[in-house]
Design goal:
Strand order of the largest sheet of chain B: 7-6-5-8-9
Shape of chain A: globular
Distance between the termini of chain B: 13 Å
Largest interface: A-B, 24 and 28 residues
Distance between the termini of chain A: 15 Å
Oligomer: heterodimer
Number of domains of chain A: 2
Number of helices of chain B: 11
Number of strands of chain B: 9
CATH topology of the largest domain in chain A: TIM Barrel
CATH class of the largest domain in chain A: Alpha Beta
Radius of gyration of chain A: 21 Å
Order of helices and strands of chain B: HEHEHEHEHEHEEHEHHEHH
Strand content of chain A: 15-25%
Shape of chain B: globular
Largest sheet of chain A: 9 strands, mixed
CATH architecture of the largest domain in chain A: Alpha-Beta Barrel
Helix content of chain A: 25-40%
Radius of gyration of chain B: 19 Å
């Protein structure tokens, strides 16, 4: 067992207990043992200085692609979880679009076994909704749940038909697991590369209209109403999607949703500014300023539950090509926290408490996993933030194999400072501890 | 001379001054084309390479002749007969070619933005010979050059561009170039073939060609890009011809002395009738000659006459 751990002098912010106070945190046997002022360090304790830092319940990224099994050249569980640790995440939930797809209990078990051997943060597998993510037959959802899948999704693609979604949402009620849908009407996004609008017109790149997402959101919300199942909408990107969710919530439909840092910060203009840099190619595509503004407003009014990265690491070979031929996706684990602090917290769009809610408390609740709190006896999953650290984004220094970031060279204030998983510091002072 | 050593990727990113410079240089070089010995030594020792990832007759030949008339050597690469067939990436192909000592790359590609990508891969200047649905800047310049042959100035000139705007790189380059030089540009086509927010580029958009052509000095007919029509964007060629094809009757909406242009290759009897294409007001073949002069000017300005 790890030594007892004393995190000294940090500002503790915990939305689960509405705490915002400078406190020492004592961790014993991997659990939170005590929070109070002036805990005296003793010889058997490892002491971490957190003066001037912010101590929060560990961040959980409920939408990442770890690529293992099948695409280990892009990322694997070891590198993906190192990236998570560097980024301040104590846990990640990994999507099933692997090869083979995570669509049965043996793949779930394999991922958990590999995680036990190679991961430095918690890994929660998400199972596929349908066999081979093909949208036709339900996968063995109950078996996967029993093996440790925390949620179900055909991410990368939407659950193909309304009827399949209906069956899955009904069926999953027996297993108390959430279904995460990637809302997209494939007929409207057909071969599209970027947002449909002025930038697609000017650039000559095929456009993906907002309605591609919104039609799917509307479908999903109606099926959620029909089934009363637990639906979570992934990576919403448009003003219209937000207002659909808002209205559905007002009518009591059981739905939660997430947004990504890149959709909260970037617009499609960057495609031209960056000279068709394929690191700007992501699905759903970067939208307009109106959409960004609507997403930001929805953060503060509670319509959006979670910020998740949709970490989609790609090899340079899959990005250093013509725009249409490049893979969709952004490597997001190592930039998310800095971007959220610099672009949203410091300018006052959200406060620290809200950040902890969006990145820790809510994902823990939605997935039904431990964490999201610093209460006594809770697992000691803790994220420490340095709110003053000035740094630049340098993708070649990422722990992730995926260096595909449109934020290369950005200067930010605020960074993850420590990642503590089950009482063990895996990253501290911005460095991996292995 | 700000073009020297630079890429020519788009008219969107090109200044009006640089466009004027190309046009005036082309004006003085055009005379070479009517000489009995069409060769000046200006670019002797320079090598240009054409990389064509899409079929072309006009543009490729035009660039290669322009290079040869200026005494540059032109080598060509086409995707159909190369290692691309063996799965080589554009970046690898281009870097290999550049290691053989070429001075300038001219590329045609089916994907928008590919020339911007190539310019990141290569240290030598890149000239865009048409990238996907984005731009065809040398076509835009040769079109403006041709308009100037027949109309004294571009400022205030009424240009109607009709047809498949959505898929047309020619339309985009003309829109950027012409609006920058002060023309009044109207566009028309089936609404499924007009891209969104196009009016924010400073053009007037119409659903019917007759409206766009009202009082036009120039009628620019675009090729219907049948190869890019994967979706059901219009019902049939017959219906397209009836409502959007330019015939004598529709032409009567333009000024009596309006000229007719087309970038080629034409789908005769679809977007343009043969009697219009071959009428005395058609300057479609002049465009081809202008193309060589404009490309000579571009190669000259980028590669420089002397070191």
């Amino acid at each position: 067992m790890a030594k007892d751990l004393l995190i000294q002098g940090g500002r503790v912010i915990d939305p689960s207990t509405h705490t915002d106070k400078v406190l020492d945190v004592l961790v014993v046997d991997g659990k939170i043992a005590k929070l109070s002022e002036g805990i005296e360090p003793e010889g058997h304790m490892e002491v971490l200085d957190a003066k001037g830092k912010i101590v929060m319940p560990g961040f959980i990224d409920m939408h990442v692609h770890l690529r293992e099994p099948g695409f280990e050249y892009k990322e694997d569980i070891e590198t993906g979880t190192k990236a998570a640790a560097m980024g301040g995440f104590t846990a990640v939930a990994c999507m099933p679009n692997t090869e083979p797809a995570c669509d049965n209990d043996s793949v779930v078990t394999r991922i958990l076994e590999r995680a036990r051997k190679t991961a430095c943060v918690r890994v929660y597998p998400i199972g596929a909704v349908t066999k081979n993510r093909a949208g036709k037959e339900l996968a063995e959802l109950g078996e996967m749940r029993a093996a440790g899948a925390v949620a179900f999704s055909d991410d990368g693609s939407p659950v193909a038909t309304a009827e399949t979604l209906r069956c899955a949402l009904e069926y999953l009620k027996s297993f108390d697991a959430v279904l995460i849908d990637h809302p997209e009407d494939m007929s409207l996004s057909d071969r599209g590369q970027i947002n449909y609008g002025l930038v697609s017109t000017v650039s000559g790149l095929r456009g993906i209209p907002r309605e591609s997402e919104e039609i799917a959101v509307a479908r999903d919300l109606l099926i959620a109403r029909l089934t009363r199942g637990r639906l979570h909408l992934a990576h919403l990107s448009t003003e219209g999607s937000i207002s659909l969710v808002r209205r559905a919530r007002a009518r009591g439909i059981n739905v939660t949703c997430e947004v990504t840092p890149h959709h909260l910060i970037l617009t499609d203009e960057i495609v031209l500014e960056a000279g068709y840099d394929t690191n700007t190619k992501v699905n759903p595509p970067l939208r307009s300023q109106d959409d960004v503004d609507a997403l930001r407003e929805a953060l503060s009014d509670g319509t959006i539950d979670v910020i998740a990265t949709d970490h989609a690491p790609h090899h340079i070979d899959d990005k250093w090509v013509e725009y249409d031929y490049a893979d969709f996706g952004i490597s997001g684990l190592e930039t998310a926290v800095g971007l959220i602090i610099d672009k949203l917290v410091l300018p006052g769009v959200i406060n620290w408490m809200k950040m902890a809610e969006l990145m820790s408390l809510n994902p823990a609740r939605i997935l039904g996993v431990p964490g999201g709190t610093l209460k006594v006896d809770a697992a000691a999953d803790i994220t420490v933030i340095d709110p003053d650290c000035e740094h630049s984004i340098v993708p070649r220094n990422f722990e992730s194999k995926g260096r595909n970031s449109p934020f290369m060279g950005w200067r930010l204030t605020g960074a993850p400072y420590g990642t503590i998983v089950g009482g063990k510091a895996v990253m501290y002072d911005g460095r991996m501890i292995l | 001379m700000s073009l020297r050593g630079n890429d020519l990727l788009s008219l969107r990113e090109m200044s009006a001054e640089d466009m004027e410079l190309v046009l005036s240089t082309a004006r003085s070089l055009k005379e070479i084309l009517s000489r009995p010995i069409k060769k000046v030594p200006t670019l002797r020792g320079k090598v240009v390479c054409t990389l064509f990832y899409e079929p072309s007759t006009r543009t490729k030949t035009s660039f290669e002749l322009a290079a040869r008339y200026m005494s540059a050597d032109a080598v060509s690469f086409s995707s159909a007969t190369s290692a691309v067939r063996k799965g080589e990436s554009l970046a690898d192909t281009a870097r290999n070619l550049s290691m053989m000592g070429i001075d300038l790359a001219i590329m045609r590609h089916s994907v928008s933005g590919s020339c911007h990508f190539l310019s990141k891969v290569l240290d030598i200047p890149v000239v865009n010979a048409g990238d996907g649905m984005n731009e065809h800047p040398t076509q835009g310049l040769l079109d403006i050059f041709t308009m100037l042959d027949y109309k004294s100035k571009i400022r205030g000139l009424k240009v109607a561009i009709v047809g498949d705007i959505l898929h047309s790189r020619v339309a985009r380059s003309n829109i950027f170039g012409l609006t920058k030089m002060g023309a009044e540009v109207s566009i028309a086509g089936p609404l499924t073939l007009l891209p969104p927010d196009i009016e924010r580029l400073g053009v007037k958009a119409f659903a019917r060609p007759e409206e766009a052509m009202e009082g036009a000095d120039v009628v620019y007919v675009l090729r219907l890009q049948l190869e890019r029509q994967a979706r059901s964007l219009f019902p049939s060629k017959r219906e397209y011809r009836d409502f959007f094809g330019i015939d004598r009757h529709k032409l009567s909406y333009a000024k009596d002395d309006a000229i007719i242009m087309h970038p080629g290759p034409m789908n005769r009897g679809v977007e343009i009738t043969t009697d219009v294409a071959d009428s005395p007001r058609s300057v479609i073949l002049d465009q081809v000659t202008s193309g060589v002069a404009v490309r000579m000017a571009i190669l000259y300005l980028i590669l420089g006459g002397r070191d």
